[in-house]
Design a protein that fits this description.
single chain, 237 residues, alpha/beta, 5-stranded mixed sheet, two-stranded parallel sheet, 15 strands
Length: 237
C-alpha cells in the first residue's frame, strides 16, 4: 500500500506473524516486519487489554476498576511566564520555572467512599466522613412530649460537638426508616411516644441490624461514647 505504515512498539523486530492481506478471506503467513513492511515509524498505539503480557516480567495484565481521586497537572511555563517566575541553573543562566499543580477531588472522594461503603438499603457512611454522625428520627413530631425530648437531646448532642440530622417530617415511620437507611448516617436514634412511655429512646448503628433501647436521661452521653468508639475503631483499623 502506498500509504504511511505505523506499527506499535511491541511489534518491533517481530517475525513469524500472521496478518490480513487486504482481501476477503486472505491472510499472509510468516511475516517478518523488518523484511516485509516499510514501517514509517513505531509508536505506542495499541490499547492494553486484560491478559496482555507484561513487558517487564512474566505475569499477565489484570484489569481492575478504580477512581481517580487525586490528580496532578503539568502546567508548563504558561503561568510562570506571566509572573516572570525564574531560577538560575548550574551555569548561572536564568530559566523559566516549569509549574505543576495537584489536588484531591472532593466529589470523587465521596463517590469512592460510597462505592466501597454500601449495602442493599443505601449508603453506609464511615463516621470520619459522614455529613452528620447521627440521624435523629422524631416519629411523633406533633406530640408535645416527643418534641420536648427531641429538643433536649439535640441540645445535649450539640453541646458535646455532635450535630444531628433531624427528621421531624409529617411522614409515616416506615418512610423515615427507609430514608435513614438510604442516607446512611452512622447512628440512628428514634424518639416516639411508645419509647417515651419507658423513658427511653431506640438506638441503632447503620452497619448493624441490632436495635437497643437506652434511657433518655443520659442518652446524649451514651451517643457521644458510641461515636467516639466508632472513631477509635477507624484509628485501630
Amino acid at each position: 500500500l502506498s500509504i504511511p505504515v505505523y506499527a506499535d512498539v511491541a511489534l518491533r523486530n517481530c517475525r513469524g506473524m500472521i496478518s490480513g492481506a487486504n482481501a476477503a478471506d486472505k491472510h499472509m503467513l510468516n511475516i517478518d516486519l523488518n523484511r516485509d513492511a516499510n514501517v514509517t515509524a513505531y509508536a505506542d498505539v495499541s490499547l492494553a487489554r486484560e491478559g496482555d503480557a507484561c513487558p517487564r516480567c512474566s505475569s499477565s495484565l489484570q484489569e481492575k476498576r478504580g477512581i481517580e481521586v487525586g490528580h496532578v497537572f503539568k502546567l508548563g511555563t504558561k503561568y510562570s511566564d506571566a509572573f516572570d517566575a525564574t531560577y538560575l541553573d548550574e551555569e548561572g543562566e536564568k530559566k523559566t520555572m516549569v509549574m505543576g499543580c495537584y489536588g484531591i477531588g472532593v466529589t470523587r472522594t465521596v463517590q469512592a467512599v460510597i462505592e466501597q461503603c454500601f449495602d442493599d438499603n443505601g449508603i453506609m457512611w464511615p463516621v470520619s466522613v459522614a455529613p452528620y454522625p447521627v440521624a435523629l428520627l422524631a416519629l411523633d413530631p406533633d406530640d408535645e412530649a416527643c418534641a420536648e425530648a427531641c429538643a433536649k437531646l439535640v441540645d445535649e448532642l450539640q453541646a458535646s460537638g455532635i450535630d444531628p440530622l433531624i427528621d421531624d417530617r409529617d411522614e409515616r415511620p416506615g418512610v423515615k426508616f427507609k430514608d435513614a437507611d438510604l442516607i446512611g448516617l452512622p447512628v440512628r436514634v428514634v424518639i416516639s411516644r411508645r419509647s417515651l412511655k419507658e423513658a427511653s429512646i431506640e438506638l441503632k448503628l447503620r452497619a448493624s441490624e441490632e436495635k437497643k433501647m437506652i434511657p433518655l436521661e443520659n442518652a446524649g452521653a451514651q451517643i457521644k461514647a458510641i461515636i467516639d468508639n466508632l472513631f477509635s475503631d477507624l484509628d485501630a483499623g
